[in-house]
Amino acid sequence: MMYAQSRGTYYLQIEDDIVAKAGFVNTISNFILSQASSDWFMLEFCQLGFIGKLFKSRDLALVSEFFLMFHMDKPVDWLLDHLFYVRLCLPDKDMTHCARMKAKQRIRYKPSLFQHVGVHSSLKGKVQRLKDKDFGKMKLHKGHSNPPATITTSLKIYKQYTIEKAYAGISLFWALLPQAGDYVRFDFVPPIGVEKFYFTSGNAEHAMDIFINTTVEALPVKPPNKAPYAPTNDGFFVVGNFTKGVADGTVAESLGKIAALRLFVHSESQSWTILSEIHIDARKAS
User: Fold this and answer.
1) What is the pTM (predicted TM-score) of this model?
2) Burial per residue of 64-73, b for 16 or more beta-carbon CB atoms within 10 angstroms, e otherwise
3) What gap in Å lies between CA 245 and CA 122, rounded to an integer?
4) Which of residues 50 and 184 earns the better pLDDT score?
5) What is the pLDDT of residues 140-170, one digit of tens each?
6) How many angstroms separate the CA atoms of 41 and 21, rounded?
7) Gyration radius from the chain CA atoms
């Protein structure tokens, strides 16, 4: 916190075990600009602990010094309440006045922009399972309108989380431990020109359930004389791969009509896998 004093106009406290809502930076910027007065001391974007608390950089010295004096006695989120009390609650005023002053200087944004997903507390030996109820339900999949296809997979499906539902945008696809040679195949009926594709594996609750060492492969209706991709032994061409759980790419027009796209796993995985977003964009007829 002290390090950041001279590095910006504002300071936002977040942690490494949270998830954030999409576009939170723009939301925070707009909320700052919307304040009728600049007299506020802290803007609050999460009600839990010390997460999502925003200060003006010029106030960081005061906050840091207060925390340094008492951090061995209480967690910082408790100390934050004391800091407001010390600054704003005067001995000659009643608690109503105190609450009114706090409301002017500590302004809360709803719904919350951050959710705590970890379980470790700063208090030794304590497990922290609290969730911010104002964050709302986390979106675990994103649906798209995809071209008609017959879908097959060698992966063992978990419960009701089928690949057909994921392709239709209804739910996510969830499968048990992928093995080398496993696949998900999309056979287009009829064949189409594929402009681009986007596959996201894992989600906010299961960040490690991703495809690793997995390629995206296209099967053209008619093998091209020359293609800018490496061929496979069974007529497909490797048009992309998963990097950090995401495969995002385009398909060269020289491949012509595509009969099928395939996700092909090249090595055993230590985790289950989720497809939380499938988007295949057909090439528009010229």
Assistant:
1) 0.60
2) bebbeeeeee
3) 31
4) 184
5) 889 999 999 999 999 999 999 999 999 999 9
6) 24
7) 26
